[in-house]
Amino acid sequence: MELKRSWSLKKSLSVVFFAILTVYIFIGLTPAKAVEVEAATDIKIPEIGLSADVTLLTMEHGVLKTPDKIVGSYSRAKNKTFLVGHSFGVFENLDKLKVGDEIYYDLVNYRITDIEILEKSDISMDVLLAPADVDTIILMTCAGEVFSDGDASHRLIITAIAK
């Protein structure tokens, strides 16, 4: 019985993937390609005592799903990695960081260059994920008013560049 369910799931996923690909081809679009990056194993931020595992994320229906207990990593452009985590979990103390603090990610030492809080509606993911001239990481978590569905009105966005 388990084998039958597994095969049905694989078949269903294949049909969905084929349908999406067909729509892209039919309307003349080409899917955006994610930059191949090796999965980082962890992130360390000594200033706030953070040491956490990192998992590679994939885009699902145009959305990156934030992992519950660890940091998610996504990249689609050269020299830019987007790291996301929950403010009530792994990134709960991110708001205590300041410009100049250090972050260690994927065996590279980064220094924070910018910290901002933006309304969720004012954020452009195309800008956040755009290529960078130097190795850059962008950390993002919820901030501001927390809604009943667990979402929040704002996002804390921290930019750090490789030293």
Layout of secondary structure:
Blueprint: H1 2-26, E1 42-45, E2 50-56, E3 71-77, E4 80-84, E5 102-105, E6 108-119, H2 125-128, E7 136-146, E8 152-162
Parallel strand pairs: 2-3, 4-7
Antiparallel strand pairs: 1-2, 1-5, 3-4, 5-6, 6-8, 7-8
Could you explain the architecture of this structure?
By secondary structure, the chain is α+β, with helices and mostly antiparallel strands. The protein folds into 2 domains: 1-31; 32-162, Beta Barrel (Sortase, Chain: A). It contains 2 helices and 8 strands. It has an 8-stranded mixed β-barrel with strand order 1-2-3-4-7-8-6-5.
Question: What are the low-pLDDT stretches, counting only 5+ consecutive residues below 50?
Answer: 1-7, 29-40
CATH topology of the largest domain: Sortase, Chain: A
- Biggest sheet, in brief? 8 strands, mixed, barrel
Portion in strands: 35-45%
Number of helices: 2
Mean pLDDT: 82
Over the alpha carbons, how many angstroms does the gyration radius reach?
Answer: 18 Å
- Which structural class matches the secondary elements? alpha+beta
Order of helices and strands: HEEEEEEHEE
| Form type | globular
Fraction of residues in helix = 10-25%
| Strand ordering within the main sheet | 1-2-3-4-7-8-6-5
CATH class identity of the largest domain: Mainly Beta
Please report the distance between the alpha carbons of the first and last residues: 54 Å
CATH architecture of the largest domain: Beta Barrel
Number of domains: 2
Provide a quick synopsis of the model.
This protein is an alpha+beta fold and 163 residues long. The protein contains two helices and eight strands. It is 18% helix and 37% strand.
